[in-house]
Amino acid sequence: MKEVKAALVATLLSLSATAMSVEEKGHYKFRYVKHFQSSVTLAKATSSGIVEGKVVYVGKRKLENRKKLITKDKEVCGTGYKIDEVYVVSDEGGVKNAVVFIEGAGNPPKETVKLVQEKCEFHPRVIAMGAGSTLEVVNNDTVKHEANGVQDFETIFQLSQHKKGMVDRVELKKPGVVEVTCNIHGWMKAWAVVIDSPYYAVTDEKGSFKISGLPPGNYKLRLWHEGFGEKALNVKVEEGKPTSVVFELR
Ligand SMILES: [Cu+2]
């Protein structure tokens, strides 16, 4: 009995010793991986550079949006006309829906961004997304929509969605501007700007934007707006001190 016990203890000991050495090996490995990961995280975490600012209209001409007649599916789309909201400018001149971005500075995140068709309008009108991200097109209406995406004069998607709740996903790989219209309702319009970096923003109602997490350095800050076109500014990004920028459009 004693012998059996001793043998059992010995086996248990050796088992636990084996377990320990595996664990130790594993631990070592884990530590290595952890160390590697934390150094990567650290590098990211130290990239605290911020570019923020405003996009303002300083021009003299009166900006006018066209009215587009609602010609069909009035029970869902409404009656009268829709305003083609190219220019959405606040009383202080802040320009909404301008895309501000830094090109070619790191890999963009692959995310899924929603584009909803509701009351025969696209929401949001302007989207900024990283290259390789997915545009999720949703029909929230009881009428048929056919979203049509064009990039560089080429149709890159055409989604026939004949009933409410239909969802289609399209991966947008190529950086650039994708114009989205609906083949059925001529007034519907949206834009997806595909960007080859993780650093982009769309201006809000006040024309404000903020891009954070940038490593310090010198960059070209680009702007795209469906009505005003393109602009660029050189910016210097420093650690812990936001760079303030004003884009003046006219
Ligand atoms: Cu439509």
UniProtKB/TrEMBL annotation:
Protein name: Carboxypeptidase family protein
Any one Pfam family match given in the protein's UniProt record, by short name: CarboxypepD_reg
Superkingdom of origin organism: Bacteria
UniProt KW keywords: Carboxypeptidase, Hydrolase, Protease, Signal
InterPro entries listed in its UniProt record: CarboxyPept-like_regulatory (IPR008969), Cupredoxin (IPR008972)
SUPFAM superfamilies: Carboxypeptidase regulatory domain-like (SSF49464), Cupredoxins (SSF49503)
Signal peptide start and end residues: 1-21
GO molecular function annotation: carboxypeptidase activity
